[in-house]
Amino acid sequence: MCNANYIKKLVNKIIEKYDVNPFNIVNSLKRIEFNAQPLTKNINGFYKYISLNQQIIVINSELNKAEFIFTLCHELGHYFLEHKNTLLLNSSFTMNLKEEYQADLFATYLYYRYVKSFEDNDLFYYPSRAQELLYKLLNTN
Ligand SMILES: [Zn+2]
User: Domain residues of the chain, as ranges?
Assistant: First the structure.
């Protein structure tokens, strides 16, 4: 089961083990090849599971800072939630998939923890689909 509470606990554990900064997390994961490149407009990024020892995360380099970081958190969600679909495109066409929803919940909480780690956290904004999920996450025990 992958409810909001489970995802919060998972994110807390990951932050304890690695770091709160999603860039530091992805760089400590040796199995993941991470890079940014220009993608078509409706794709924020993708996660590709090749094998147990090889996964790829690509983020659209055209995104603004907040969207870029949120998307990285989302793709990390696929990794930590052990989604094994060969290719998960982060685009408006796939928003209904259960795995996309779970990755968004994961991303929202990791992003929230990351933003909170800054004193000047007004510099960040929450992508619209994260705002609703954040409310749900913060009102779950
Ligand atoms: Zn996704």
Answer: 4-138
CA atoms within 13 A on the CB side of 47: 26
Q: Which tokens is 4 given?
A: 């909001």
Token pair for residue 81?
A: 């939630």
CA of 1 to the centre of ligand 1 (A): 18
Single out the residue of 111, 110, 109, 81 nearest to residue 97, CA to CA: 81
Paired residues of 55 in beta bridges: 32, 49
Task: Provide the 10 A C-beta neighbour count for residue 42.
Answer: 11
Each residue's pLDDT tens digit, 90-113: 665 555 578 888 999 999 999 999
127 C-alpha to ligand 1 centroid (Å): 15
Q: Which of the 8 DSSP states describes residue 53?
A: T
Q: Which residues contact 7 (CB under 8 A, 6 or more apart)?
A: 81, 102, 105, 106, 109, 137
Local structure of 28: helix, strand or coil: helix
For the domain spanning 4-138, the CATH number is 1.10.10.2910
Q: What is the pTM of this model?
A: 0.90
